[in-house]
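P.,

For your records, the input lines for the assembly:
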Amino acid sequence: MMGVQTKMNDIVYLVIVIGISLAALLGALFLMGSIGKVKVEDEKMREIAGIIREGSMAYLFRQYKVLAVFIVVMFIVLCFTPGLGVQGAICFITGALLSALAGFIGMRAATKANVRTAAEASRGQQPALRVAFSGGAIMGLCVVAFGILGIAAFYVIFKDIFAVITGFGLGASSIALFCRVGGGIYTKAADVGADLVGKVEAGIPEDDPRNPGVIADNVGDNVGDVAGMGSDLFESYVGAIISALLLGVVGFAEKGVFFTLLMVAAGLLASLIGVVIVRALKVKKPQTAFDVGTYLSVALEIIATLALSLYFFDGALWPFWTVVIGLAVGVLVGKITEIYTSDGYRPVKRVAEASKTGPATNILQGFSLGLKSTAIVILLLAASIIGSFMLGGAFGVALAAVGMLSTVALTISVDTYGPIADNAGGIAEMSGQPESIREITDTLDSAGNTTAAIGKGFSICSAALTALSLFMTYAQTVGITVIDVLTPKVLAGVLIGGMLPFLFSALTIEAVSKSANRMIEEIRRQFREIPGILEGKGKPDYKRCIDISTSAAIRQMILPGVIAIVAPILVGVLLGAEALGGLLVGSLVTGVLMAIMMANSGGAWDNTKKHIEASAGGKGSEEHKAAVIGDTVGDPFKDTAGPSLNILIKLMSIVAVVFAPLFLR
Amino acid sequence: MMGVQTKMNDIVYLVIVIGISLAALLGALFLMGSIGKVKVEDEKMREIAGIIREGSMAYLFRQYKVLAVFIVVMFIVLCFTPGLGVQGAICFITGALLSALAGFIGMRAATKANVRTAAEASRGQQPALRVAFSGGAIMGLCVVAFGILGIAAFYVIFKDIFAVITGFGLGASSIALFCRVGGGIYTKAADVGADLVGKVEAGIPEDDPRNPGVIADNVGDNVGDVAGMGSDLFESYVGAIISALLLGVVGFAEKGVFFTLLMVAAGLLASLIGVVIVRALKVKKPQTAFDVGTYLSVALEIIATLALSLYFFDGALWPFWTVVIGLAVGVLVGKITEIYTSDGYRPVKRVAEASKTGPATNILQGFSLGLKSTAIVILLLAASIIGSFMLGGAFGVALAAVGMLSTVALTISVDTYGPIADNAGGIAEMSGQPESIREITDTLDSAGNTTAAIGKGFSICSAALTALSLFMTYAQTVGITVIDVLTPKVLAGVLIGGMLPFLFSALTIEAVSKSANRMIEEIRRQFREIPGILEGKGKPDYKRCIDISTSAAIRQMILPGVIAIVAPILVGVLLGAEALGGLLVGSLVTGVLMAIMMANSGGAWDNTKKHIEASAGGKGSEEHKAAVIGDTVGDPFKDTAGPSLNILIKLMSIVAVVFAPLFLR
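Structure tokens returned:
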């Protein structure tokens, strides 16, 4: 009788979880429809938006073609991997496809919303904001719903929790890495290239239609900041849930599983409510709407978690507190990131001050700002690890990670809003809209910059906690209870692991500077060879620039991706399971540190430039020139290497978990 | 009877060790005399050299005054530290004084040799080279002889090996840190400031006497590259020997002690022979003489170690092989550093290529070069750790570290030669010597640049191995046999430890950019206010610039130094002995990685600039301007933050060893 009761309960739980996910998807569908209703009258606008959409899709398809080969190879490998087999391999493919699908839908929505945001700007800021945010919310809701549905569905079908979720996670992670790296290279090659020749050499403004690289730059925002970021957070989310399930099922059986699933479902529901609120609010500053929505959904999620904790754990509150720790650290790190990267605070002002003595001092000051910003974030992380572990052991750490990500649907919505607003501004500029429209898109865009910086700090912290709980999952899977850094092999593992984020960053930064160089040469060639191009009479060859970014990104995403998968396997096989554990710890430490440093230095340089533009110095001044150089250095830091490191550390941990049986002696 | 025999042997060993050290000191005395015999006729030369010497000494005395306070406070603290007591505290003071003395003697020799090198250049390259190298050799021989004598003498007097050598090591380390950080800030504040206003703004050449910051720059070479580097390697040397003795005495009693002492004494003798050879060789390129001398002393040391290994370990060869591993890794890392930083190879050429598209791409390419260069060095380190540990356990790792440093007297001689030649060039330029003399000093100077880069790679590796064996010593002292990264407190320790080198680099880089800014303002003021200064009629106020560098360096060396001492104690007391172990591992990993990155990026930027000057682009071209900016960014990387990290990781390990009793529960 008791068993039947439990069984019944399980079904009810699953129905709730799946129901909420489907509701979120319906919400996304509704938003898609509401965006579609906006008409774009301006012919020129439509043309430009068409090229951007076409370029974005062309990139995505070429990327997916390359990834298809990778997926097939991995599928075959996984079929023969002990502990995973065909069923794990199927989950792998599903994870990979859902990750790609989330990116695809997000990008379709974004490329539909960008031009409509520009069009709605003629009716005022509020309608424009609503379209841009709705575009972002479509991806936010889809990413999270896919994640929950995928895990829940496989759990029902296969029941074998290990194969299901590790396979699924590996699929999501590996696609995420390629998308993040490829998208990051694409967007920054275009950005750096277009800026250096356009702004610095030819002296024409940003987003000027005479610049042949300008559309590639806008495409880049979509493939990098939309599709890349979507896959990134999809995999953080999936990774965190996976490790919570694996660690929870060991200690608490189905109780651990359903607490986790219902908690994330509640977070999705809270985010959905947040999305409705943000859309409905009428405010002057977009940031206010985002803040209200975010704090509201966090509050709802806290209440829901409290209830779930009391219900599932017989009145015990520790699961609740671990989730609160995760949420609190997420919010705090967001605030710290803002302090270090927004020009309302001292750090960025000091970089602006240093710009007066030239680019070298600008770069030194910005670089040391990033280095310094790691201190407090790391102390917070360390405290949250100790706190959540003392509360709930390894499962507690995993719950903190899941807690931090529980309202991620809203975070993604706000994050994706940024590049959509940015694109809208580009389209308005390129299609020659009046000043008033451009002002509105600028306001929307600048709100997007702050949210982007905060989003980065958040995704680093969630990546750190997720990687950490995956690391503990790995130890449990491989059956080691001690990873002793006093043994030489573990030490060697820590050193090698610590080095990988350095190597990985070198490869991605170099890829950007290589591709940017090719872009620069092409733009210079067009300026030279196309008659009348700088007078606005000759038509620039946009597609050629798009092609350069596309092929460069796809070619150069492969090596870093392969290293991420092969390195842990190699160390595990050659030096053993403990050494691989050392590698994971080493890469976690330097990966997190480098990611924080790069995100904050990059963000600070960016805002220093904007600060100088808006203040005394102004555009064209010596200090502005110095700040432009700093910003260019920061571009691949914050948008290519930095965010890719998040995925690197998670992917290596998942690879370790999946291939664990290989490393046992 | 056997006991008496052993006793007799011990005395013989000690006599040999002390005898060789005294011979080396006599050698240094002889060199001092030989330099003194060189007469400087040129009045202007003497005047300039006088200001440099005065400025250097003034800095050193002000630095020592501040350190005296620190030493007294620490002395009192140590008297009451369990396990150390008054006797350990006396050793602490001796270590501190010897470290300071080594820096002082080195600086006196260097400021005597610089002007005499310039004077001898009128008689040809060979005599000039001999004076410059002799100046360097004085410090090389003193540093090593002081290290051996100090350890050996205390061993005879006190017999309590723990208190003796940890106290001695702590003294050497803490002084080294302050000297490295202070010297690094001094030299780069002056260098960056003088360059940015002089070369970039006023368009006057380097070392031009019209530039008020130019003498501070030359003083900086002495306080940073001579005194700072001397203290750094003194403490590496002492630290490595300490951990070898502590680990050796446990496993092998007096056998371990005397093998280590005789092995380093043999290395000193081999270096002494190397010094004689370098002075005697008549070659076209100075580098050839250095290479012959270095390889010869390494070969001699290998033979001596083979004999000692056979003698002390009854025919066993493993101690020999660990020393060979250390020597081999040292030589290989030197070669790798050369490949990444010399313009004869592809990496620097690619940075030069990237300079064509401006400073941003120059910096991105140089930065990724540094990141990438960590890969192979780390793999070598990892291999050497595993190898030496498998051969001889923790003692094996310590022996590898000592082996790497065994011929360090010659390494220091060659390294110190660099800034002396650099100074000689400055003095020749400022005193208006003819072109022919300037050419000779330029040749000597450029040889010094390559040796400086190689020396940096070497000191990082030796610091890593030394820190590692100190880490193992710590575990042994505190009595923990397992440091398990699966426990949350150790993990937190690893994260915090990993963060410290980031924070530390931020503070030192910021210190440079802050002080450079003050220097820039002062130089601009003088250009503005002193009439006729740029026409060479008005006399610049050199002393004011020297003062700015001095007080900035001394004020800003304190915080980083205090962090290095306080952070490990705090973590040990709050989170326990295992967490402190985690901290040491974390700081070791990121400290080594950042140090390699900074040294190689900095070296590459420097040589990119020189490469462009010597090739197509030339001075004044756009790519040269870009390269100058890269070089300026690299200055605090390679000469302030990077080298200080070496000491940071060693000092924190020594602090952990010394205060071990505090962390036991």
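Two observations worth noting. Chain A touches chain B through 76 residues (CB under 8 Å). DSSP finds 17 helices and no strands in chain A.

Regards
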